[in-house]
Amino acid sequence: MRPTDLTGRTLLTRAEDTEYVKDTPDLFSSNDPNTPMERAFRAHTLMRKDGAEHQAERGAMAPAFTARNIKTCWEPIYTKIAEDYVARLPKGEVVDLFPTLAGPFAARCLTHLLGIPEASDDDLRRWSQILIDGAGNFGWSDALFAECDKANDEMDALFAAAADRLRADPDQSAMSVMINAEDPIAQSQIWSNIKIAIGGGINEPRDALLTIIYGLLSNPDQFAACKEDGMWMQAFEEGVRWVAPIQVSSRLVTDDTEIHGFHIPKGDGVMTIQASANWDEKIYGDTGHLFDIHRAKVPHQAFGNGPHFCQGTHVARRMLANIMLPLLFDRFPDMELADPAAVDFYGFGVRGPRHLPVLLK
Ligand code: HEM
C-alpha cells in the first residue's frame, strides 16, 4: 500500500526531507488548490503562493517586521501589554493561563503589529479560530464556511475603518505599510494577508508560551537554572522545538519525483511533519521527546524553512523570550503546576495545551 492511500498525501517525517521540500518550491509548490483556505479567507493568501507573486506580497508586509521596528515600535507596546496582563493575575490563586494570559496577550500584541488595535481580544481570538477551522474544513461543511463568511464581513468592515485612520495618520503597522506603499498590492490581498496573520499570529505565540511554561514547571531543575541564569531564549527555542505550534505544512508536487526511492507523482500532495523533524533521531538521538533547555544548539524547524519561513519569528522571540517569560516569573518565581493531569496538549495541524492550571506563587 502506498502511504498516500491512508492520508491522501505523502507524509515526510525526517528533518532532511522536510527541509528539502520547503527549500525546493519549484518542485513542491505552496499553491495547493485542494485546500479549503481560499474559500475560508475569500481570497488566495500569500501562504498559498509561489515565486514573484509570493515575494511581492510578503515584501509588502515586511517593513512592519524589521529589527528596528521590533525594537522601537513593538517592544515598548508589548512590554506595557505584558505588564498589564501579568498584573491582573491574582497572587496565591489557581488560574488557567490559557484564557487569562496566553490568549489575550497574543491577541493584544497582534492587533498593534497589524494596525487594528480597535479589534477586541475576544473578536480577534474568535476570528482567528474561525479562519483556522475554515482553512482546515476539508469536509467542505457549508455551515462552517457560513461562519467564515460572517467573520470575514466583520473583519472587512473593521479593516476599512482602520485603513481610513492609517491613511490619515500612518504608522509602522502591517496594515499601514501596505496601504501607504508607493505601489500598493491589491486591497483584496492586503485584507487576506492581514487575515492570514490573524489566523497564524495568535495561536502560535499562545501555544508556544503555554508549552514553555509547562516544560519549565514540569522540570524543576531546569526552571531553577532558567531563573538563575536568565535562560529565557533557550527555554523559548526548546519549547517550540519540543512541541512545534505548527506541526505540519502541505505542498503540491509539480513534477514526478522521488524521495529515498519512493515515487511521488506530479499532482500529489506532501505533508512536511515538522513536529517529527524536530525530534529526528539523527539529530537528537533518543532524547528528542524530552524538554531540555541545556540541549546543544542545533537548528529546529518550528518556524519552517525556505521562502515561506515564518515572517513573525523575531516578533515571537521578542514577545515571549525577552518580554513575557522574564516578567511573568519575576512576579511569580515559585509558580507551580496545580493539576498536571489537566494539561491537555491537543491538535494535529496546530498544537498546544488547551488548559494550563497553575498556582501563582
Ligand atoms: C512561536 C510562534 C510562531 C510559530 C512557531 C510560527 C510558525 C510558522 C511556520 C511553521 C510557518 C511556515 C508555514 C509553511 O511553511 O507553510 C509560518 C508562517 C508565517 N507566520 Fe508564523 N509562527 C509564529 C508566530 C508568528 C507571528 C507572531 C506572526 C505575526 C504576524 C507570524 C506570521 C507568519 C506569516 C505571515 C507567515 C507566512 C509567511 C509566508 O508564507 O511567506 N507568525 N509561521
Description:
- This protein is α+β, with helices and mostly antiparallel strands and 361 residues long.
- It has a single domain, classed as Cytochrome p450, CATH 1.10.630.10.
- Helix content is 54%, strand content 10%.
- The strands form 4 sheets. It has a 4-stranded mixed β-sheet with strand order 1-7-4-2.
- Bound molecules: protoporphyrin IX containing FE.
- The site of protoporphyrin IX containing FE has 25 residues, from helix 10, helix 11 and helix 16.
Order of secondary-structure elements:
HEHEHHHEHHHHHHHHEEEEHHHEEEE
Give the CATH topology: Cytochrome p450
Average pLDDT? 95
Strand tally, please?
11
Largest sheet: 4 strands, mixed
Which architecture would the CATH scheme give at its second level?
A: Orthogonal Bundle
User: N-to-C terminal Cα separation, in Å?
Assistant: 54 Å
Helicity level:
40-55%
What is the fourth-level CATH superfamily? Cytochrome P450
Secondary structure category: alpha+beta
Which ligands occur here?
protoporphyrin IX containing FE
Number of helices: 16
How many domains is the backbone divided into? 1
Bulk shape: globular
Q: Tell me the strand order in the biggest sheet.
A: 1-7-4-2
Unreliable spans are: none
The value of Rg in angstroms is 20 Å
Strand content: 5-15%
